[in-house]
Amino acid sequence: MFIELNGVRLFYEKRGEGRPLLLVHGNGEDHTIFDQALLLLEKHYCCYTIDSRCHGQSSEGPLHYDAMAKDMLAFLEALELRDAIFYGFSDGGIVGLLAAAETDRITTLIVSGANLSPNGVKPSLRLLVRAMYRRTKDPKLALMLREPWISDDVLHRIRANTLVLAGSRDVIREKESRHIADTIPGAELRILPGEGHGSYIVHRDKIAKLIMEACRIGS
Predict the structure, then answer these.
(1) Would you state the pLDDT for residue 218?
(2) What is the 3 state secondary structure string of 141-206?
(3) What's the confidence (pLDDT) of residue 216?
(4) Alpha-carbon span 86 to 73, nearest angstrom
(5) Mutual orientation of helices 123-136 and 139-146 as an angle, nearest 10°?
(6) Cα–Cα distance measured from residue 6 to residue 70, given in angstroms and rounded to the nearest whole number
(7) Parallel, antiparallel or unpaired: strands 8-15 and 45-50
(8) Helix (H) or strand (E) holding 36
(9) What is the pLDDT of residues 1-23, one digit of tens each?
(10) Which of 9, 108, 115, 138 could pair with 120 in a Cys bridge, judged by C-beta atoms 3.0 to 4.6 Å apart?
(11) CB 110 within 8 Å of CB 162
(12) CB-neighbour burial class of residue 7 (10 A; exposed 0-12, middle 13-18, buried 19+)
C-alpha cells in the first residue's frame, strides 16, 4: 500500500491484528528485511513495515533523519495509531529516537544499532562508507557521513518504555549505545553476545522474540 505524506509517497505493508507495531529498516534496505520476524509478530500485533523515503518502493525526497522522523509522525497521525510500538534498526533506530521524542503515540520504543552522531560508529565503518561514497556518490551514504546529530535534550524528551539493543560485535561503539540507554529516562540496554550489527535482525526471527519480550516487560 502507498500513503502520501510530507510530499513523498511511502510504501508499507500491513499484517496481523492487535496493538500497532511499526518496523523501520536500516540504510540501503527496505521492509523485506523483516520477513522472518513477521511470521511471529503478525500473530500478536498489527504490523506496519515501511519503506523509508528514498528506499524500496517509496519515492525520493530530501534525505535527512529529521525528515524521515517527520514521515513516521505523519504516518502515525494519518492512520490514527496510538499506544504504538516502534522498532527501528540502524537508520530506523535513529528515526525512532527522533520520532519518539516528539509524540506520545509511541509508548514502546525499541532500537537496534542506533547512533547519535557520525562519530558514534566505529572508525572502520566510517572509512568504508567514505570510500564507497567517493565511488558511488550515493546520497544514502552521504547521510551516514553527515548525520545524525541528536542531543541529550532530545533523548530526555522520550517518555516511551525504551529498550536499546546492540550486538557485542556491532559497528556502533558500545559507549554510544550505553549513553543512549543512560540518557533516555528509564531505558534498558541489552548487549547481545556474539551478534553483529544486523545478524539478529535481517531475515532473522530472533528480533521478533526480543520485541515481544520487551513489550511484555513494558506492559
Answers:
(1) 46
(2) HHHHHHCCCCCHHHHHCCCCEEEEEEECCCCECHHHHHHHHHHCCCCEEEEECCCCCCCCCCCCCH
(3) 80
(4) 11
(5) 140
(6) 8
(7) antiparallel
(8) helix 35-41
(9) 999 999 999 999 999 999 999 99
(10) 115
(11) yes
(12) exposed
Number of structural domains (the chain) is 1
**99's grid cell:** 520520532
Kindly list the strands in the beta sheet with 106-112, ordered across the sheet, starting from the edge strand earlier in the chain.
Answer: 2-5, 8-15, 45-50, 19-24, 84-89, 106-112, 161-167, 188-192
Domain assignment of residue 145, given as a range: 2-218
Using left for φ > 0, alpha for ψ between -120 and 50, and beta otherwise, residue 165 falls in beta
Neighbour count for residue 34 (Cβ, 10 Å) = 27
The CATH number for 172's domain is: 3.40.50.1820
Residues, the chain: 219
Measure the CA–CA gap between 32 and 36, rounded to whole angstroms: 9
Cell 526480543 sits on residue: 210
pLDDT tens figures, 163-206: 999 999 999 999 999 999 999 999 999 999 999 999 999 999 99
DSSP letter at 106 equals E
pTM for the whole thing?
A: 0.96
Query: DSSP character for 59?
Result: P
Place of cell 533506530: 93
